[in-house]
Amino acid sequence: MRRIRWVRSHSTALGGEPLKPDLVLVLTYVTISAIGLLMIFSATAPGFEAAGEDPATELRSQAIWVVLGFIVFAVASTINLVELKGFASPFYLVSVVLLVLVFPLGESDGVAQRWIDLGRIQFQPSEFAKIAVILMIASILAAAERPIKWNTVAHVLVIVGVPAGLIFLQPDLGTMLVFAAVTLALLFVGGATLRQLGFLFVATVVGTVGLFQLKLIEDYQIRRLTAFIDPESHSLDATYNQVQSEIAIGSGGFFGKGLFEGTQTNLQFVPVQSSDFIFTAVGEQFGFVGSVIVIALFGVLLFRLVVIAMSARSRFAFLVTMGVAAMLAFHIFVNIGMTVRIMPVTGLPLPFMSAGGTVFVALSAALGLAHSAWIRRNSPVGE
Predict the structure, then answer these.
(1) Mean pLDDT, to the nearest integer, of 300-317?
(2) Integer Cα distance of 330 and 181 in angstroms
(3) Residue-range domain boundaries for the chain
(4) Which of 92, 98, 270, 289 has its CA 20 to 30 A from that of 82?
């Protein structure tokens, strides 16, 4: 009780003024981003040099996105989440429209159609749809009674189902799984009962089996999954990515081969190493110790998000922050998991480290929104 009284008096003494930024969160975010730039350079420089091009080509491109991401993070940190709640629906509708526009206007890589070409850059609407879904679910659950009713659960599923279905058609199974993970996490912390969560889990399993039975899953996605479950029954090309990933990380040993000294990285044995498999560059060059440090940094980031959520002044801010934490946690677990072969290949990037402009800016915006809950944690709820 004495502690509670001190917090209240301290908050009143501040007069509801915004607090200083969470320096631990900010410094961790910047450090991970800097390590990501270094790993992208080490993974791409040998290839550009072999082709007679500037070895810093991709580094410069990603650095521009990182700077833009930092700016977006800073701007998002100043947004009042209570006021943002009123814009959740328009933002959601815009994200759905952009997902629809991917099909007539989008660029295809021969396997999937996920990007809208804007000239010199490609925009991936699904990355910002993740934020829109988090805001919408948080808005619905913040206004609901606890424990939440079945009609609230149904409302949430409809809101998630529309963008998830459009993303499934692209196809982008990895991002669709992010939506599922975030939805279950928010329903759990938002007041869903065990019966409701159990029903959703069973429905998810049945739905997944149904997709396979109806042959609605692409052949290459099925090969990825079956190659992960039973690698010996598949040819080398089906398991090549993860085999090379394992070799790269395993060859790093305890302390690693040293920066720019990784043979797997320098000889470009690991496919799409600068994006999907960027963690292999860490494992080979800095070894087990470097890998643990990077994972620990992600752990600090997630821990700070939980702390921010618990200190949030409104239920909406709490749910948004927990949604961001769940999204980042799922990305981190799946990406690192697929590099060490405990998860199938899904194409999910490693937050703030993998090469990619849209994903870096979108995740920076999401982190900034969560950070704003910390900055305003002593402000009156209505502000």
Answers:
(1) 95
(2) 7
(3) 20-375
(4) 98
